[in-house]
């Protein structure tokens, strides 16, 4: 055999080995790239989706809306699915960053409670499908805090110095401070924002840490007395440590909605819609809600939850408590004011 022919044969063999190893050439599996909050799904449902539809899911996590938005805006990612909160969804709609979702491909959308449809951030339900919802509140350890907890002001009480955990999330931490002061958590007013900044600066020496998902281990382990948390995480922590209790303070708080969207970076819109429909399947929505602790907007999934969960006011609060809450709005150009405050508070 001539040398060159041998070389060609060897090369052909090498290419076919590589192709068979990567699964190319034959049945290539689609990869669906999902970008979601940390601790925000039951991984077993991902495995179930991959098996059922012969699709590989690449799953990444973020800690805040701002982190997720910056990554998508930078343009180097190719995610197919994101699960942001309402104010970030609004911003992404306005900036033409999202695909419209064809609800004809989401037959399980019928299980989503009407209460979670036609909300201000996506008034015609064109871009988002509800995933979870909840509130922001104070989680406290009843063995360390003996007085009644009903006001954000307790997070400024020197008695609890270095026993307070704040959220490392600018909208949430500035938002609850604005509520403590009696202002709207969507304010763009310079004086009100300055008052909030001063309050956060004053609070800083009392704060043990500004935390993300680590709040769960810390509060379950009794490392702090009080923490600002999301209701779903509160459900999870209360289950792990019965000394913990959750309250939405009397001054009011934030009610939020996290929904599934398809960014324009997606090359797999059909599979992304298949995934969204899968998430809306009652059994799947139930599994997720039961595992992560967050409230589900899926009417059938709620019915499957244990009675003590369905009746727990932390996850399913009474209407009068929600009436005290405000939903975050996209701040557009005024976001830089919040950004500056947060950088200053953290840097001090
Ligand atoms: C889960 C974060 C939930 C976000 N770790 C609440 N909007």
From TrEMBL:
Principal subcellular localisation of the protein: periplasm
Q: Which GO terms describe its cellular component?
A: periplasmic space
Which residues are involved in binding spermidine? 87
Compartment list? Periplasm
State the Gene Ontology terms under molecular function.
polyamine binding
* Source taxon at top rank: Bacteria
Q: What is this protein called?
A: Spermidine/putrescine transport system substrate-binding protein
Q: Is-annotated flag, keyword Transport? A: yes
Name the PANTHER family on file.
SPERMIDINE/PUTRESCINE-BINDING PERIPLASMIC PROTEIN (PTHR30222), SPERMIDINE_PUTRESCINE-BINDING PERIPLASMIC PROTEIN (PTHR30222:SF17)
Q: Does the keyword Transcription regulation apply?
A: no
Example GO BP: polyamine transport
Question: Keyword set for this entry?
Answer: Periplasm, Signal, Transport
Q: Check the record and name the InterPro entries matching this protein.
A: SBP (IPR006059), Sperm_putr-bd (IPR001188)
A Pfam family matched by this chain, by name?
A: SBP_bac_8
Can you tell me which residues the record assigns to a coiled coil?
Answer: none
What is the residue range of the signal peptide feature?
1-22
């Amino acid at each position: 055999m001539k040398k060159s022919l041998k070389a060609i044969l060897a090369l052909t063999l090498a290419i076919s080995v590589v192709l068979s190893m990567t699964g190319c050439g034959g049945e290539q599996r689609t990869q669906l790239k999902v970008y979601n909050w940390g601790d925000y799904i039951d991984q077993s449902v991902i495995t179930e989706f991959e098996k059922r539809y012969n699709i590989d899911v690449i799953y990444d996590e973020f800690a805040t809306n701002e982190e997720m938005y910056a990554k998508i805006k930078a343009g180097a990612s190719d995610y197919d699915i994101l699960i942001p909160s309402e104010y970030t969804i609004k911003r992404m709609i306005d900036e033409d960053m999202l695909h419209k979702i064809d609800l004809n491909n989401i037959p399980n959308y019928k299980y989503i409670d009407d209460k979670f449809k036609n909300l201000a951030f996506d008034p015609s339900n064109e871009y988002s499908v509800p995933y979870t919802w909840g509130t922001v509140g104070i989680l406290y350890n009843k063995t360390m805090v003996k007085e009644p907890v009903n006001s954000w002001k307790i997070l400024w009480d020197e008695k609890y110095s270095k026993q307070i955990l704040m959220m490392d999330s600018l909208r949430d931490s500035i938002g609850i401070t604005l509520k403590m002061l009696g202002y709207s958590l969507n304010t763009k007013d310079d004086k009100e924002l300055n008052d909030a900044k001063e309050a956060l600066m004053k609070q800083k020496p009392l704060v043990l840490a500004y935390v993300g998902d680590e709040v769960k281990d810390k509060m379950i382990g009794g490392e702090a007395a009080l923490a600002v948390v999301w209701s779903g995480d509160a459900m999870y922590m209360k289950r792990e440590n019965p000394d913990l209790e959750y309250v939405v303070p009397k001054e009011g708080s934030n009610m939020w909605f996290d929904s599934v969207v398809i960014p324009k970076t997606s090359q797999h819109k059909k599979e992304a819609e298949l995934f969204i429909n899968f998430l809306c399947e009652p059994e799947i929505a139930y599994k997720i809600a039961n595992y992560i602790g967050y409230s589900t907007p899926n009417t059938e999934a709620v019915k499957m939850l244990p009675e003590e969960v369905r009746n727990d006011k932390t996850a399913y609060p009474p209407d009068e408590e929600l009436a005290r809450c405000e939903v975050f709005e996209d701040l557009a150009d005024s976001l830089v004011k919040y950004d500056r405050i947060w950088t200053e508070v953290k840097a001090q």
